[in-house]
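BUG: 3D viewer hangs when loading the predicted structure for this chain

Environment: internal workstation, default settings.
Expected: structure renders.
Actual: progress bar stalls at 90%.

Input used:
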Amino acid sequence: MKVDTIMNKRAQLIATAALAFVCHGLTAAEIKPTPVPPGEAGFVPLFNGKDLSGWHPCNIAPETFTVRDGLLVTSGSPVGTLRTERMYENFIIEFDWRHMRSGGNSGFFVWADGLPVAGSPFSRGIEIQILDPGFNIKGKNEWYSTHGDIFAVNGAALTVAGRISPNGKRSFPQEERTKPSPEWNHYRLVANNGNLSLSVNGKEVTLAKAASPRKGAVQK
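C-alpha cells produced before the viewer hung:
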C-alpha cells in the first residue's frame, strides 16, 4: 500500500496521505503493501506490514482489524472502521485487496470525519465501494454496481459523473474489472481538490467531482 499527495498544478508529489478499510457486515478482506513502481518517487508506505501504527479504531472490537503475514486483515465483525490518525486533502493512494469469500462487501472512505455519525458505524465522508463480483442482491445496476462505486454518505455531498446510477446518487464504473475472490485487485485513487478518479486493475473506470468535505481521514 502506498500513497502520495498532489501539490498545486500537480507539481512534485509529497507523501502525506493514508488509507483504511470500512467493514459492511460479516465479510472478510485483506490488503497488502504495493511496491512503488520505478519513476514514481514520493510515495511512502502507510501500512508497515507489522502492526496498526498510525491507525485509530472507531467503534470496533480489537479483533476486527489484525495484521497477519504482512497483510492488514478485517473480519467485518463487528461493523466499524479503522481510520488514519491524521487528516489529508489531496493525494494519490494505491493498494491491493481481496475478499476471502465470494460475495464479500466492503469499502473505504476518503475525506471522512474523525468520529462516526451518531447512530451509525460510519463517519460522514465519501465511500469508494469494494464488492466481490459474487455480491448480487436486488437492485444491482440500479442503486449499486459490482465494484468501484463512488458516493457520499452520512451528510457528505458529491457531484456524480461519468456513468451515473439510475437513482442519481452514485458514480458507477464504466467497466467492471474486479476479479472474484480469492484473487487480488488493485485500486489507484486520485483525490485532488474535491475531485476523485478511481482506476481498477490498471484502468480508470469511475469519476466524481466537487466533494464536500474534501479534507479528512481515510478509513477502512
